[in-house]
Specification:
555 residues; alpha/beta; Alkaline Phosphatase, subunit A; Jelly Rolls; 2 domains; five-stranded antiparallel β-sheet; 26 strands; 24% strand; globular
Length: 555
């Protein structure tokens, strides 16, 4: 019998009621809604337009979910913003971006990141802050550097906590410099590395380009290795940009959409899978290339045909991709949906030009079809499905909903597009609920809400959190929840200990008091970080990058 055939077995539908069977891990389904806000959900619930949201919230726990604004490392702006791939990775790992490694909408392929060093005032000096360093002394500093070619080979002074360690010769070719670190020079809490260069120049002065930055050298990584040869610390200027504190221009490299190779922390589905819990993930941001899990994974590149390109590792197991591809809808299949949502009613079709909404509606339809097929007959495990239509619709149409001037050729009906998308999401939630057993737990979470800023829809700091099931407190309004709390709360729901290196907390008040009294929170001191794996083949999807450009996320 084929594994995928078992996976796609269809069973009869059920309702949301009943109690969890003893001795079995629960079935938990997490519906991830990019950009969904509690304000619009409550407004449309009051108009009786969201019966399935109402079904979950009236007899479950719900409330706002605070997002996580952060600096985007590939931009020069010092303003903190809410970036979806960063936040969704925090939801999956329970960790802040500095720990989980996803720091922007795009990042360099691991091993290709670098940053130029230079100064517009005085000599070029690069300053890097390193944390407290353990391991077995003596330690060694390893730096991958090259001198800016037009200035030629030059000398570099290496200073550690204010003391000069060495002066080394730096060629114009990439080289790895090694400098011993005396044990007496180590400090608790924080160490300071400074690189002082004797020469710098502007590319524009040499006819190479119009770039007028003053450049001395380029750095690719900084490592600290102990006496056993163990790498205790490895910093690249993209993932660890906040540690490159002075003299560095924004990082560069071979940019791609966020991929699984960028993750530096284990997601909750890996932790549960390692504990023997079956898992299934559909479409979570940044999960391509797909990797082994205790169940199945449909990666973030599987949703849109053009985005797949010639990619492999679209799913785990690999054979699943071919089995589920026929479920993907065509544009013609969704014409009735487009008409109902009014997305075709502008002439010229402004929405087609300004947004990828149609593509995302096709993707979400596909993911819901997959969820219904895969979840039917399941009675245990963690499963999630990611839906993006609300966010994409709100970027263009939220101002129209709020009364802004419509583009020429757009009828007044397009003001209701965002509401209709919420209604469609509600219907999809109902489709998923219909195939679940009576004792299933259902979570609905979003990475942020939406607000109108400067004439467009922009990310707002609060999304939504909904939980429903036998172990969940009924009729409860929850406050004080953050995106970091979702992963530890899911672990506790499965009676699993929470790793101490997670930054979120278990949301104790969302649980039914009787169940919670009998299931105390446990913690475990384990390392849930991930090391970069340069052996995983990867590439950039121009289609995925174009989607991000269309939404204004990247230039």
């Amino acid at each position: 019998m084929r594994w995928v055939g078992v996976l796609l077995t269809v069973a009869s539908s059920g309702s949301l009621a009943g109690c969890q069977k003893p001795g079995r891990a629960p079935l938990v389904v997490v519906i991830q809604l990019d950009g969904a806000g509690l304000d619009l959900v409550d407004e449309l619930r009051a108009d009786r337009r969201l019966p399935n949201f109402d079904r979950l919230m009236a007899t479950g726990t719900s409330g706002p979910l605070q997002s996580w604004p952060t600096l985007r490392v590939m931009r020069t702006s010092a303003r903190r913003t809410i970036a979806s791939p960063i936040v969704w990775t925090s939801i999956a790992t329970g960790k802040i971006p500095e720990k989980h490694g996803v720091r922007d909408f795009v990042l360099p392929v691991p091993g290709t990141a670098s940053a130029w060093i230079g100064s517009e005032e005085g000599s070029a000096r690069g300053e890097i802050l390193l944390p407290e360093i353990g391991g077995v002394p003596p330690h060694e500093l390893r730096l991958k550097l090259r001198s800016f070619a037009p200035v030629g080979e030059q000398h570099v002074g290496v200073f550690w906590n204010g003391n000069e360690l060495d002066t080394v010769s730096l060629p114009v070719e990439w080289t790895i410099l090694t400098v011993p670190l005396p044990a007496s020079s180590m400090r608790p809490a924080q160490n300071r590395l400074e690189l002082l260069f004797e020469k710098q120049s502007r590319p524009s002065d040499h006819g190479a380009s119009s770039d007028r930055r003053r450049l001395a050298a380029e750095v690719a990584f900084v490592d600290v290795v102990d006496a056993r040869g163990k790498t205790l610390l490895s910093l690249d200027p993209a993932v660890a940009r906040e540690r490159f504190v002075r003299g560095f221009y924004p990082p560069r490299g071979q940019l791609t959409e966020i991929q699984s190779v960028h993750w530096r922390a284990k997601p909750v589905w890996t932790l549960l899978g390692d504990a023997g819990v079956p898992v299934g993930i559909i479409g979570h941001w940044g999960t391509w290339p797909a990797y082994p899990v205790n169940g199945f994974l449909v990666s973030s590149r599987m949703g849109i045909r053009q985005t797949r390109g010639d990619s492999d590792r679209l799913t785990w197991p690999d054979s699943l991709a071919g089995e589920i591809a026929p479920l993907a809808p065509d544009v013609d299949d969704l014409e009735p949906t487009f008409e109902r949502l009014h997305v075709n009613e502008c002439a010229p079709r402004v929405i087609d030009r300004q947004s990828v909404l149609k593509k995302i509606l096709i993707q979400d339809t596909y993911y819901v079809r997959l969820a219904r097929k895969i979840l039917a007959g399941r009675d245990t495990g963690l499963f999630s499905v990611y839906l993006r239509s609300i966010d994409v619709a709100a970027h263009v149409t939220l101002p129209w909903r709020n009364g802004s001037l419509l583009p020429e050729g757009c009828p007044d009906t397009v003001r209701s597009i965002l509401d209709e998308v919420y209604v469609q999401i509600d219907a999809w939630i109902g489709d998923i609920l219909d195939v679940l057993p009576p004792d299933a737990h259902v979570f609905v979470v979003s990475d942020h809400g939406m607000q109108q800023l400067q004439g467009t829809g922009d990310h707002a700091p609060f999304g939504l959190f909904i939980a429903h099931g036998a172990r969940i407190r009924p009729g409860h309004r929850q406050f004080g929840s953050t995106v970091l709390d979702v992963a530890p709360t899911l672990l506790h729901l499965f009676d699993q200990p929470v790793p101490l290196d997670m930054d979120g907390k278990v949301l104790a008040s969302v649980f039914d008091p009787a169940w919670f009294r009998a299931s105390s929170i446990r913690y475990v001191d384990v390392d849930t970080s991930l090391s970069p794996d340069g052996a995983i083949p990867t590439d950039a999807s121009e289609e995925a990058l174009e989607e991000l450009r269309a939404l204004g996320y990247i230039e």
